[in-house]
Design a protein that fits this description.
With 240 residues, this protein is an alpha/beta fold. It has one domain: 3-Layer(aba) Sandwich (Rossmann fold). Helices cover 41% and strands 15% of the residues. A seven-stranded parallel beta sheet has the order 3-2-1-4-5-6-7, sandwiched between helices. The longest helix is centred in the middle third of the chain and has 28 residues. The chain is globular, with a radius of gyration of 18 Å.
Length: 240
C-alpha cells in the first residue's frame, strides 16, 4: 500500500483474531507495529484500554505514532433481560470508553506532530439489530457516532474512519457459536461464508495508506452482502 512503509502503527487487541492479522499485515507493509493487549507476549505492551491511567502510561512509553487501530473489544452472547451490571460495565468500558481513551491519547500526539490516521473496529451490529448482544450493539453504534464526531473535530490533521465487519471467523466467534450455528449464519450471507481476519486486515491497511487519503468520517461495511437486503428483498421481491 502506498505510503505505509516506515509508519509507526499501534494496534489494540492485537494478539488474536482481526487484531493479530492486522498486526501481521502492517509488518508485511514495512511498518513498525506496537500491540496493546491485556495478554502479555513478545512485542506487546500490557494494557487494559478501559483503564485510562494504563492507556496514558502506555502512550507515554510509545511516543509518536502515525496510525492507530482501535480494535480491542469484547462480547458475551446474553439475552438482554439477563445482562448483569458487571457485564454491561465491562463491555462498555472496553468497547467504547477504551476506544475513546486510546484515540484521545493518539490524537494528542498526532495533532502536535505530522498528523495521522485513526481507525475503529465497529461492527454491522452498529447498523442493524441483533438479538442477544444488546450491550455490544450499543457500544458499536457509539463508535460510529464517535468516528463522525472525531473526524470533524480533528480534520484535516487526522483522518478518522470506522470499519464495520460482519461475521468474521475469529477465535471469539468460534467460542460463542457452535458449528451448527456457524453453518446457519453462512447460509444467510450472500457470499456464503464468514470473512477471514486477513481480509479485514487488508481493508485496514488500505484505509491507513495514502491511497485512502480522501476517506474520513466514513463507516465502511465488509459483510459479504449480509446487510445489503431485508425480508422484502428476497428472491422475488415484494409481492412475489
Amino acid at each position: 500500500m502506498k505510503g505505509l512503509a516506515g509508519k509507526r502503527v499501534v494496534i489494540t487487541g492485537g494478539t488474536s483474531g482481526i487484531g493479530a492479522a492486522t498486526a501481521r499485515r502492517f509488518r508485511d507493509e514495512g511498518c513498525e507495529v506496537v500491540v496493546l493487549a491485556r495478554r502479555s507476549g513478545p512485542g506487546v505492551i500490557t494494557c487494559d484500554v478501559g483503564d485510562r491511567a494504563q492507556v496514558d502510561a502506555a502512550f507515554e512509553h510509545i511516543g509518536d505514532l502515525d496510525v492507530l487501530i482501535a480494535n480491542a473489544g469484547t462480547s458475551v452472547r446474553t439475552p438482554a433481560v439477563d445482562i448483569t451490571a458487571d457485564q454491561w460495565e465491562q463491555v462498555v468500558r472496553t468497547n467504547l470508553s477504551g476506544a475513546f481513551w486510546v484515540a484521545q491519547a493518539a490524537a494528542r500526539r498526532m495533532l502536535l506532530g505530522r498528523g495521522g490516521v485513526i481507525l475503529f473496529t465497529a461492527s454491522t451490529n452498529a447498523l442493524v439489530g441483533y438479538r442477544y448482544y444488546a450491550d455490544y450493539n450499543a457500544t458499536k453504534a457509539g463508535l460510529v457516532a464517535l468516528t463522525k464526531s472525531l473526524a470533524l473535530e480533528w480534520a484535516p490533521r487526522i483522518r478518522v474512519n470506522a470499519v464495520c465487519p460482519g461475521y468474521v471467523l475469529t477465535p471469539m466467534q468460534q467460542a460463542e457459536y457452535t458449528p451448527e450455528m456457524l453453518e446457519a449464519v453462512n447460509a444467510r450471507i450472500p457470499l456464503g461464508r464468514h470473512a477471514t481476519p486477513e481480509e479485514l486486515a487488508g481493508l485496514f491497511a488500505y484505509l491507513a495508506s495514502d491511497e485512502a487519503a480522501y476517506f474520513t468520517g466514513s463507516v465502511i461495511v465488509m459483510d459479504g452482502g449480509e446487510t445489503a437486503g431485508s425480508i422484502v428483498s428476497g428472491p422475488g421481491g415484494p409481492g412475489a
